Amino acid sequence: MKSVRFGFLALWFGLGANLPAAGPNVLFIMSDDLRPQLGCYGDSVVKTPHLDAFAKRSLRFDNAYVQSAICSPSRNSMLSGLRPNTTGLRGFGIRVRTVVPDVITLPQHFKQNGYHSRAFGKIFHIYDESMLGSEDDPESWSQPLQLPTVPVWGPKQNALRNRLIKEARAQGKQFNHPHDWPRAETWDDSDLPDDQMQDGNTAAMAVNFLQTRKGKDQPFFLAVGFLRPHLPFNAPRKYWNLYDPDKLKLPTFRQRPEGAPPWAVTQGIVKNYHNMPPFESIEESFLRRYLQAYLACISYVDACVGRVLAALEASGHADNTITVFLGDHGYQMGEYDSWGHKHSNFEISTRAPLLFHAPGMKLAGASSSQPTEFLDLYPTLCDLAGLDQPKHLEGKSFARLLDDPNASHRKAACSEMMRRGRLGRSIRTGDFRYTEWRNKQKQIVARELYDHRNDHKKGFLETENVEAQEEFVEIKRRLSKQLHQLVPHNTPSPK
User: Is residue 71 annotated as a catalytic residue, yes or no?
Assistant: First the structure.
């Protein structure tokens, strides 16, 4: 039954009729804290040759949105097929199975249908003091998740961190929570080979796995999770040398959006690193170095992705592999004067890169502007692999966009965020972003409405909350109704 179904789908999408009856492999690559700052998304500064080349063989999604701009809830959502609105999972380090014990995750579904399911690096949220814990989902994998064998901290950072730990323990300090452990400096640019930092090590493990698949017929679901460009900004020095900090431009829109509630966005710089100066006295030279660090990490990830894609080609399986590359949410690097934060419902936080390749695509290298949710990945991969969709899925397959990027898909994408005891639910249409904030009693305490017909000119930034303006009364009413239909408010308590 599966082979018949996949054959039909293959012909429908122009994927070719000569694929193995077992169905296509899946290569699922994630990068942490990566916004759409890639050459293929129009950025003229960043150097991402491997992802740019991959985009020419893929469909690029220009308006793809995560369901929460935090690592753990974003990943739990896309991999379970459930909205944070359904599970109540909106914070760090909580497994989706704590609230939905019998959920069938995306890789688990493929495993149950005969796939060899493997994972390397950060897939579900990994959470302990070293960012190398075991907070994953064993039920999803055919073999246990494999983590990098090198520490998250670089050599310069480790020396400092070990000293700080020794000093803290001498003073009787107890480390009872991941956030209790001392953190080192924000970045490390040591002159090391790629594999001696985390993501290069992860890439090496994925390459080794692909080498073992030569000549094997059993299809695989391979998830590869790169930690960068998440803080700390660690990358081998050669990637830093690609950028001159003195030539990097700081964002021009640095103020809070006019009329936005005070909790809607965090201003300032991430503070819990050793070398962070007070934000009030921070110098532009430090911020330019900060930007350089972020870009260096993006280029490092790009090189790692290139190695994995080359290994896929060498394995002989590239012609029968669906390949996905994505960031788990956006990131703020100076926009709104927010440096290294993402916890918001704004465009800069919720919009993330998504590149999708299926063998034999008719329109390789095209782009789609249709609003798309990362929740849609699960049903799409089921469709293309000829697998039945689990009944619990809340996403919508975008498979038809592979043949027609302009086909109707969604009218809107939704996200949500907990901020200072308030839950903000947000809906993004082609022209507007509308957000409602409710307190613990589920009373509306603030609304936001941004007109992207004007704000789009400022590079996907929301700049002025127009919800109080009379001309938008009907638009606000319509968007509120649409939001409530997609994400009703009678949901589990936030966690």
Answer: yes
